[in-house]
Amino acid sequence: GRRFSSLSNQTKQIRAEDIHKSLGFLPEPEKDFFKKEEEKLLSVTDRTINTLIDDGRLVIYTPISLAIWCKKYDIVYKFLDTHSFPNLDLNIPNTNNTFPITEILAQYNQFHTEENKKLVFDILERTDKKTLFSRSNRRKRSVFQLALDSFDFEIVQAFVNKMADNGIEKFKDSFLIRSDED
Predict the structure, then answer these.
(1) Considering only Cβ atoms within 10 Å of each terminal Cβ, which end of the chain, N or C, has fewer?
(2) Going by C-beta distance under 8 Å and a sequence separation of 6 or more, which residues neighbour residue 162?
(3) Cα 87 to Cα 60: distance, rounded to the nearest angstrom
């Protein structure tokens, strides 16, 4: 087979595209796609906040999951506002059985920004306990496993507290073996 020198034009092109993507410069077709998505997201009302947006892609997302996926955090915060969107339900799965909490955790695990972390807590607060145990169709990992993947103690602790219902005290008594010395 043909081998490329480490600085062949093709390699440079691919490397440049990766760098551009990571900096948020998207190729034109993707830019158009995000523009269309944003228009759809801006037209969402409280009546349609829990309706899946089918745009012909493999995965069909709820509006808030799509906003997270597109990193449109201003729209995410707008949807989380209980006065504007009192009917928002954060426990409706996308077609790959992921949830808004799955999407924001995946982004936190990738980018580790403070904004992502704050959104993890905001969304976790309004997510049902049972949702945290659900597994995605593709990767077969639960939401809680994604939280563990964050290697972030505060996030893991918040998940454990949520899953233990009455907080960590109840969790300690029923799950940890006490030593004889107190």
Answers:
(1) N
(2) 124, 127, 129, 132
(3) 20
Asked if 57 and 95 touch (Cβ cutoff 8 Å), the reply is no
DSSP-H helix ranges across the chain: 9-22, 28-42, 63-69, 73-80, 100-111, 114-125, 143-149, 153-163, 168-175
Residue partners of 123: CB distance under 8 A and separation at least 6:
80, 90, 100, 101, 104
Q: Is the pTM of this model over 0.70?
A: yes
Q: What are phi and psi of 100, to 5 degrees?
A: -55, -40
100 with 127: CB under 8 angstroms?
Answer: yes
What is the 8-class DSSP label of residue 99? Answer: -
Half-sphere CA count of 138, side-chain side, radius 13 A? 7
Burial of 120 (0-12, 13-18, 19+ CB in 10 A): buried
Tens digit of each residue's pLDDT (9 = 90 or more) over 73-130: 999 999 999 999 999 999 999 999 999 999 999 999 999 999 999 999 999 999 999 9
- Identity of the residue numbered 67: A
Residue range 142-181, pLDDT digits in tens: 999 999 999 999 999 999 999 987 545 444 444 444 455 4
Amino acid at 122: D
Q: Which two tokens stand for residue 115?
A: 């904004």
